[in-house]
Amino acid sequence: MEGFPKKCVAKRTVPREPGSCPPTVLSGPHIPYEPFPGTTPPLGRGAGPPPLDTLTPLGILHAVPPSRPLPPEPPPLSATTPAQRRRAQRAQTRRAILDATEALLLEGGVENFSIRRLVGACGYTAPTVYQHFGDKDGLLDALLEEHFKRLERRLKRLPSDGDPVAVLRARALAYIRFGFKNPEDIRLLNSLRGRHAELPESTAGTRVLLERPWLELWEAGRLRAGDWRSAAQALGAICYGIMLGRMEAPDHDWSKTLAEDAIDALLRGLVIPDAEGNPR
């Protein structure tokens, strides 16, 4: 055998149990020991026969148990049904179309958006786009709903009990912070909102969260404004103005308390203090 003397042999005697057959002498060429995958190799780098506790009386090598369990095998391909593959493919196509739509809207605005430009950007045909979204308005509404859902989830994490003024203040600040962290979302939302005299039903959840406290204050007789909708629009304008200013001039030395001060000033001016004299 290459690398070893021809007469070099290894002899090992397996311990004899009382009353068993005579010990078996194992002879043969000296073969370097290489541990099985996942087993613990012997100490040192030198080659040698396996330890006795891995040999049977017939000299068969037993793999040493691995020190940690092996990772599970991946599920067979048959575990994914044709229906699951079709759903995954539809979701992938829908995602690609929405991402391409968002990129085009941020680049050129809704007035320059067209299905023809979208087809060139995403690689899918116009019939595929219509199959998933119905028409151009359906596509834009789907994108609008997706972005409003992100804001809605953020607002729903806030407490909804207690004085409506405190709820309003917390939600308005959360809206502004959402805009600071997601400026492209705010640009896209306001670009798409310009298509509608009224926002589509897909935005109803977010609108309810931002408007309901104003309606509660109006019903309780605590608003100085002529209508609760005008109060809600005034707060929305302040929030959007603060976000837009930060987006258009990010390097300006903006006050760290600008959002809190502006919202508090609006609430003190529009809301009549409660029975305990607390405006908020």
What labels would you give this structure?
280 residues; mainly alpha; 9 helices; elongated
Structural account:
The longest helix is centred in the middle third of the chain and has 27 residues, at 82-108. The protein has nine helices and two strands. The protein is an all-alpha fold and 280 residues long. Helix 1 (82-108) crosses helix 2 (115-122). Mean pLDDT is 76; it is low at 4-14, 23-28, 42-47 and 52-69.
**Total helical elements:** 9
Mean pLDDT across every amino acid position: 76
Strand order of the largest sheet: 1-2
Question: Strand pairing plus helix content: what structural class?
Answer: mainly alpha
H/E element order: EEHHHHHHHHH
Proportion in β-strands? under 5%
How many angstroms does the end-to-end distance come to?
91 Å
Report the C-alpha radius of gyration, rounded: 36 Å
What would you call the shape?
Answer: elongated
Note poorly predicted spans.
4-14, 23-28, 42-47, 52-69
Strand count, sense and closure of the main sheet? 2 strands, antiparallel
Question: What is the helix content?
Answer: 40-55%
Number of strands: 2
